[in-house]
Design goal:
4 strands; 3 helices; Alpha-Beta Plaits; two-stranded antiparallel sheet; binds iron/sulfur cluster; alpha+beta
């Protein structure tokens, strides 16, 4: 059974989807994650929508509920809301989306010690 916070967040995500307000992309992980991948974001994500690639972690654009919990946890400031991705890392938005097209059925990353 979902914990109360997680249940609330999941409900808001379900409502947003039902209202047709889904976006192509939400939060983006950019270049600073490469070579770090310390899983701090995975540990706080309430819906397990962060996945591991060879070089970095990726946020699933349709599963992310835009809660923002991961953004301040990243020790290298790699996570941005889509509209706030710095110019030099704008190409990470399509890179994040492409990752999920290239890896259908991939399992979410597990936090440290899980
Ligand atoms: S904003 Fe971050 S913590 Fe929140 S659901 Fe999306 S990926 Fe997970
Ligand atoms: S917290 Fe930042 S550096 Fe760590 S895995 Fe997540 S995005 Fe990468």
């Amino acid at each position: 059974m979902l914990a109360p916070l997680r249940r609330r967040l999941h409900l808001s995500w379900v409502l947003r989807r039902a209202r047709g307000r889904r976006r192509e992309m939400t939060y983006i992980i950019a270049e600073p994650c490469i070579g770090v991948k310390d899983w701090a974001c995975v540990d706080v994500c309430p819906v397990e929508c962060i996945y591991e690639g060879d070089d970095q972690l990726y946020i699933h654009p349709e599963e992310c509920i835009d809660c923002g919990a991961c953004e301040p946890e990243c020790p290298v400031t790699a996570i941005f809301e889509e509209s706030a991705v710095p110019e030099q890392w704008k190409h990470y938005t399509p890179k994040n989306a492409q990752f999920f097209r290239d890896h259908p059925g991939i399992s979410p990353a597990k936090g440290k010690g899980k």
